[in-house]
Amino acid sequence: MAGFLLAGSVRFGESVGSEVFFHVGEAEKCEVQPQSELKNLLSRQEGTYGQVISSVALPKETEISITLRDLVRQNLATAFLGEDSDINLSGGTVTQAVILRHNVDVVLKHHNLSTLSIDGATEGTDYLVNLRHGFVKALPGGSIADKSEKSIIYTYADLHGFKIKGAIKNAITVPVLLTGTNLTTNATVRFLAYQAILSPSSPIDFLSEEFAKIELKGTLQIPEGQDSPFEYIEIS
Predict the structure, then answer these.
(1) Which of 29, 167, 175, 182 lies at a 20 to 30 A Cα distance from 9?
(2) Where are the domains of the chain?
(3) Is it the case that residue 36 has pLDDT exceeding 90?
(4) Is the pTM of this model over 0.85?
(5) What letter would DSSP give residue 236?
(6) For residue 234, what are the CA distances in angstroms to 5, 156, 189, 213, 228?
(7) What is the pLDDT of residue 158?
(8) d(CA 73, CA 156)
(9) Any idea what DSSP says for residue 151?
(10) Count of CB atoms within 10 A of residue 154's CB?
């Protein structure tokens, strides 16, 4: 008897037919399920009523399910059905007229601030500022009247990161490559789905008490030039 316990890695192709694949990080599930539908002809005759007298199995779609544990940039773009882009902004100084409210945050045009000042006002007494997120609010009892307009001067640091425009795609179409080793036999395993149509099967809870994960589900298609939706290779 040969058991099957795989240690492996999942990669998504850049596009269908591409030779470029990026590693999606830790994956706790990569599950494929070919399906078929059985069509039965039942007898209506005496003595055999209700028995199957003819049967045919019809092929159906092949399903794939993948669970990712690394919420890196490419995986988040997939989970959000979105497109990602770089953020590269140089720091600077801004003078902005803002209507301040008592105990209500006003969101400035920039975040990752270095300094912020309001002419004639003292931080901690007249207003509070969140430099990291770019929030400022007036404090009751200070010199800033509620709903008054003030000129704010602040500096912000360089910004480097990425952003994702979410929910702008219906699905993600990628090849899926799983490579690994069967720990019970030390055989090398390779699974390649040529064209997977994936979409998120569960939400991402930003405030979950557990580590977040990305659950994807979809179907496999047969692209032009292939005669099956996937291949499995095992080398002993």
Answers:
(1) 167
(2) 6-85+164-235, 91-157
(3) yes
(4) yes
(5) -
(6) 13, 55, 5, 29, 17
(7) 96
(8) 24
(9) E
(10) 22
